[in-house]
Amino acid sequence: MELNENREKLEGYRQRAKELVSQMTLEEKVEQTLYQAPAIERLGIKKYNWWNEALHGVARAGTATVFPQAVGMAAAFDEDMMEQVADVVSTEARAKFNMQQNSGDTDIYKGLTFWAPNVNIFRDPRWGRGHETFGEDPYLTGRLGVRYIMGLQGHDENYLKTAACAKHFAVHSGPEDVRHEFNALANEQDLWETYLPAFEACVKEAKVETVMGAYNRTNGEPCCGSKTLLIDILRKEWGFEGHVTSDCWAIKDFYEGHGVCSNAQEAAAMAMNNGCDLNCGTLFMYLTQAVREGKVSEERLDEAVVNLFTTRMKLGVFDKKEENPFDAIPYTAVDTKEAREFNCEVAEKSAVLLKNKDNILPLDKRALKTIGVIGPNADSRSALVGNYEGTASRYITVLEGIQDYVGEDVRVLYSQGCHLYQDRTSGLAQANDREAEVRGVCEASDVVIAVMGMDATLEGEEGDTGNEYGSGDKPNLSLPGLQHHILKVAKESGKPIILVCLTGSAMSLVWEEEHLDAIIQGWYPGAQGGKAIARILFGERNPQGKLPVTFYRTTEELPDFEDYSMEGRTYRYMKNQALYPFGYGLSYTAYTCSDVAFTEENPDVSRGVTIRFTVKNTGKREGTETVQAYVKAQAEGAPNPQLKGVKKVDLKVGESKTCEIYLPPEAFMLCDKKGEKKLPGCPYEISVGGSQPDKRSEELTGCKTERISIS
C-alpha cells in the first residue's frame, strides 16, 4: 500500500511538472536546464539556483553548524549518527531558505538541492578530495551515504525536506590536475565490486533525488554524457527517477579536454541525449539551436525539464506555506545550543586513538603543572573545517580547547612550531625560525601535545586549494614542511610527546609510531573540534573511532596513482601489512567478544544469516565498542576479508551485552570478471570483533577476532 501511495504521489508531482513545462517556450525550457534557472513570471516560477552544498553542514551560505569533515564522521562507523547529522543540516537548510526567500534572496548556495554526499571510494590516500568521502570501503560508504541522504531528504509522506545528491558518478578519485581530460579505466569486476555499490545503495535504498556525473571519462565515455552510466545503469538497471546534474563546467571538457566532440553545441547535445538533465555551467544554452537542428529531440528536453520541476514540486516550493511543514521552520533553528553540543559529540566519536604507550592517555590535569602545545594546526581554524564548509559562530581550536579545559589550574605554553608547509613562519625570518621556541616550551612542560597535519589548502579540490601540493593532491604521505623535524626536536626534550594529527587522509607515521608516546587521528574535526579533542585527551570522553581508510607505511608501496585497478589497493586487496589497518582504533578500556554463533538452526548464506555474539567491557572505563563483521570467501582470487556489518555497543564497566548482526545474501556474493554478482559456492569465514581479522590489527590491539565458518 505504501509503495503504491508513493508511486501515486510521484506521478502526481510529475504530472504537475508536465503541465507546467507544456506551457513553456523552447527558449524557456532550455534556460531551466541551467543551474542558474531564471524566473518565468507569467507561470509563477521563481528564479532558482540549483548549486548548493552540504557536505558536513550547510556550506557557503553564512552561519551554520560546521560538523567534522565527512571522512572524520565516517570514523564513527555510526549509521544512526550520520542520519542525525543530516537531519540537523536539513533543518538548518530549511530555516535559512525560509529566511532568504522572505528577503527575495535566491543567490547561489541558498536553495534546497544539495550536492552531497560524496560517495566516491577513497582508493588512494594521495587524492586531495578523499576527505570529502566516507573512506575506502564500499559497504561502509554505502551505509553512511544512505543514511546521510535519508537525513537530508527526511521522511515526510508528502515532501522532501531537502534534495540530496550522490556524487561523482562514477569511478572518480583523482588525480585532480588531469581530471578534465583523464580516462579512468576500470574492469567490470572492479566497477561492480568497488566503484558502483555505494551509488546503487543510494539510488535503490535511499531514493536519492539527484546524481552528479564526474569530470573524468570512465572507460572512454565522459561521465556527464555516458550512455552506459546515466542511461543503461542508472535509469534502466537501477530505476533512478530523479534528475542528473553535471559537475561544474564538466561538459566543456568534452571538447576541450576529452576530445570526444568538436564544439560546445555537440557537447551539450551529447550530455542531454545521454541522460544529463541539468548543466552546472552555461553550455546548455546551445540546446536551443541543437533542438532546432534536430540534434536533440524536444521530447528529450521536455523530459529533462520535467525531471527538474518534479524535484521542485517534491520540495513543496509551488505549494501554499500551510501545506508544507518545512516552511514553518524558523531561522532560530540555525546554530542552536543543542546543535553545537551534538556537533561536539560527533567530533568525539570521530577521533581515532592510534597509539597509547603505557596508557599515558588520558592525562590527569591534577598531576600536571605545565602543558606544552606546539604545531601549525594547534591554533588553526582552517584545520578544523576541511572544505565545502559553512561559517560557524564560534571555532574552538585544539589549543583553545586545552586552555578552556584546564583553566587556571595548569599553565599552557604554546608555539606554532613551524609553518604548515613552508620552511619559516615569517617571510623575513631565517628558515626554521620557531625551533628555539619549541625547545623552550618542551623544556618547561610536563607533557607536550603536538598538533600537526594538513588543511584544505594542501589537500582538496583542484582550483579550490592553494595548489601548493599538485592541484590539491598529495605528492607523498609525509607530514609537510618542517613538521617532522619539529617532532624530532620535541622528542629530544625527553618529555612525553602526544601527537594529534589533523588531516583528511592517511599519512605515513612510521617514525611517529616508533618514537612518540600517543597518537590521535583527529581528522578535520569541525568547529567544536578543539573542545572534543581536549575532552578525549583528559579522559572526559573515551575514544571510539575506527579508521575508515588504511594508513600505509610508505608512498612507494602504493600502485600508480592513475591506475584504477583495485589490485593492491585498500584493505580489501592489499598484500602488505598496514601501519594502521582499516577498522583499527584503540580505547581507554578493553573489550572482549565471545560466544559467536549463528541464530539459525541451519544457516544458509543464500537466505542470509544472523550472527549472535556477546561483548563485554573488561576495562576500567565505560565506553563504546564498534563490533565489525568481516566475510572472507574461501575461493581463489577472492578479496581479503570484507566488512559487511557493524554494531555499536555502549558498555559500562564490567557490563556485557548480547547483540546480533544480520548478514544478507549480498554479503556473501562476489563479482565475476563480467561484473555479475554471484554466490561462489565456497566455504566462508566470518570474523567478529573490534577490528578486521588481520595480523597487524591483532598485533596492535593484542586481541584476536572471533571466527566462525559456514559452507
Summarize the entry for a quick read.
The protein is α/β, with parallel strands linked by helices and 711 residues long. 29% of the residues lie in helices and 16% in strands. The chain is built from 21 helices and 23 strands.
What order do the helices and strands come in, and which of them pair?
Layout: H1 2-21, H2 26-31, E1 36-37, E2 48-49, H3 70-74, H4 79-102, H5 138-153, E3 165-169, E4 183-184, H6 188-195, H7 197-204, E5 210-213, E6 217-218, E7 221-222, H8 227-237, E8 243-245, H9 253-256, H10 264-273, H11 287-292, H12 298-314, H13 337-350, E9 352-356, E10 370-374, H14 382-385, H15 398-406, E11 411-415, H16 435-444, E12 447-453, H17 483-492, E13 497-502, H18 510-515, E14 518-521, H19 529-537, H20 570-573, E15 591-598, E16 609-617, E17 623-633, E18 642-651, E19 656-663, E20 670-671, E21 677-678, E22 684-689, H21 695-701, E23 706-710
Parallel strand pairs: 3-5, 4-6, 5-8, 10-11, 10-12, 12-13, 13-14
Antiparallel strand pairs: 1-2, 6-7, 9-14, 15-16, 16-19, 17-18, 17-22, 20-21, 22-23
Helix pairs in contact: 1-12, 4-5, 5-7, 13-19, 15-19
